[in-house]
Structures are given as structure tokens and as C-alpha cells.
Amino acid sequence: MGSLSIWHWLIVALIIMLLFGKGRISDMMGDLAKGITSFKKGLAEDDTKVSTPPRQVEAHPAPPAAETVSDPSSDKSA
């Protein structure tokens, strides 16, 4: 009861073939293979790219911030 026999799998395969047809399944497998090939080609192109060194950015110091006088220790109203 728990496992599927070969007859169950043959019936499932027959239903799938009837629903999708032989040409449709082979087209899907071809598209899958093209996608995998394209993915591998993209990965290979990333490895072969020559990385350019990062350009130097000159640092300019920021202007000093306006000083605010708010010393919590000088507030003795409590």
C-alpha cells in the first residue's frame, strides 16, 4: 500500500505523455539544457574578466560640526 509499483509509474508516465505530448517534453528538456549551458557560460565569463584595480579617491576632511552645549552633568535641577 505504501510503495508504488512499476504499474503505477507506467500509468503516471502515460498520463503525463497524454497531457504534454512527446514534443512538448523534449522541448522543455532542450530549454532546460540551454539554460544550464548559458548559466555555465556566464560563470566562466565572470572568471575570465580582468579585474581593474580600484581607483584612488582623495579624501577631503569634513567641515567641523557646530558645537552644541548640552552637558547633562551640569543640569542639577533634579
Automatic annotation (TrEMBL):
Q: What's its membrane topology?
A: Single-pass membrane protein
Would I find Transmembrane helix among this entry's keywords?
yes
Q: Which domain of life is it from?
A: Bacteria
Chain segments annotated as transmembrane: 6-25
The residues forming a coiled coil are none
Could you say which residues form the signal peptide?
A: none
* Disordered: annotated segments: 44-78
Annotated compartments? Cell membrane
Q: What is its main location?
A: membrane
Q: Which InterPro entries match?
A: TatA/B/E, TatA/E
Protein biosynthesis in keyword set? no
What keywords appear on the UniProt entry?
Cell inner membrane, Cell membrane, Membrane, Protein transport, Translocation, Transmembrane, Transmembrane helix, Transport
Q: What does this protein do?
A: Part of the twin-arginine translocation (Tat) system that transports large folded proteins containing a characteristic twin-arginine motif in their signal peptide across membranes. TatA could form the protein-conducting channel of the Tat system.
Identify its protein family: Belongs to the TatA/E family.
Matches recorded under HAMAP family: TatA_E
Question: How does the record describe its quaternary structure?
Answer: The Tat system comprises two distinct complexes: a TatABC complex, containing multiple copies of TatA, TatB and TatC subunits, and a separate TatA complex, containing only TatA subunits. Substrates initially bind to the TatABC complex, which probably triggers association of the separate TatA complex to form the active translocon.
Q: What is this protein called?
A: Sec-independent protein translocase protein TatA
